[in-house]
Amino acid sequence: MSDGMRREELEVKEAQRAHDRVNELEDQLNDGAMKAADLALRTLIAINGAAIVSLLAFTGSLLGRDVTYKAKISPMIDSFWWFGGGMATAALAMLFIILAFFVGGLNHHFRDRTFRYPYFNPTRLSAILETVSYGFLLIAVALGVGSLVVFIKGCMVVHDVLVSLTT
Hints:
Layout: H1 3-65, H2 69-72, H3 74-109, E1 112-113, E2 120-121, H4 124-166
Antiparallel strand pairs: 1-2
């Protein structure tokens, strides 16, 4: 066995170890990011849903007490649309997070693996998939922020109605 063949064998083994390390790291990063995004978006859905349930209970108790409140709480009923919209945008954000990580995984799958450093070479398809994945991720972040903004708008509407009830 010549030194050239031995060196090539060592390079192949090192490349295989690098491939395995990158695969493991990608799996860990994707898993962690997915769990964090899932938790954040589930929380947004929960707070918007809890706001709707609270408003239903509060509105019902006001309507059951006094007829004079009926005209004043009409704008509060409109806030259900804001909180429902917050739930819908958070659910859409979850969908785009899933798409981003799925397409990101495809990006890594379609890279050329080599036995010479740097052991991975992007292909045209993997570069396109990476761009699409980042696009999905940006859309998901925008929708997540939008869900929070819509929740705040709903809170502002409810605040205005509660202030009008005290005057």
